[in-house]
Design brief:
Blueprint lengths: L1 E10 L5 E12 L4 E14 L17 H15 L3 E4 L2 E4 L2 E4 L4 E4 L3 E7 L2 E3 L1 H7 L11 H10 L6 H12 L4 E2 L2 E2 L9
Parallel strand pairs: 3-8
Antiparallel strand pairs: 1-2, 2-3, 4-5, 5-6, 6-7, 7-8, 8-9, 10-11
Length: 186
């Protein structure tokens, strides 16, 4: 049984096409498999990278929550967001509040932002910072997928440095480096 985000493509009565995100729970038993929609997450808005040259700098002195906040901040800046106030970033009409874990448009309508290969929305932000769901640091593949599905795009060196900062354990084994690209979902 697993929970994941599913994107559905819809066309409204006026012919406009939209993508919507839903939180779906997958259950299976010996007879059949079943999907249950748990929550509507919002309309999907795809944002291209505007400033791809901004590097991720991993500060080893930060706590895990501060590191993830900083990674998200850099991703938002890469996609054209600007600092607004108190952990709030804006790219009109979108707002991302990293302190309260909300992604919305004016007037406070929840949306889903497609960043890189992942989706950033209120659900994923709150799940990212939820202390009851620790980061999957013991499984390298799960760790890379976790970051990618939340819209965080790191190159191999940045990922190795981040994992080392969070665990004090390096992803470098002997002389061979774990191939990060092979872990990412298609």
């Amino acid at each position: 049984m697993g929970t994941y985000i599913r994107i559905k493509h819809r066309t409204n009565t006026s012919g406009n096409e939209y993508d919507y995100a839903y939180l779906v729970q997958w259950t299976s038993n010996p007879i059949y498999a079943h999907q249950k929609h748990l929550r509507y997450l919002g309309k999907v808005h795809t944002l291209p990278q505007i400033h791809p040259h901004i590097p991720h700098i991993i500060n080893h002195a930060l706590s895990p929550k501060e590191l993830l906040t900083d990674l998200l901040r850099v991703e938002l800046l890469k996609h054209g967001f600007r600092y607004y106030t108190n952990y709030v970033y804006t790219y009109p009409p979108y707002f991302v509040d990293l302190h309260h874990g909300t992604v919305y448009t004016t007037p406070h309508k929840e949306v889903v932002l497609q960043l890189n290969a992942g989706y950033l929305c209120t659900y994923t932000l709150q799940n990212l910072f939820n202390p009851e769901h620790p980061l999957p640091l013991t499984n390298s593949k799960a760790f890379v997928n976790f970051l990618a599905l939340n819209g965080i795009d790191l190159n191999q060196d940045e990922l190795i440095d981040l994992h080392h900062a969070l665990t004090n354990y390096s992803l470098v084994k002997g002389r061979s480096i774990i191939r990060i690209q092979s872990f990412l979902l298609p």
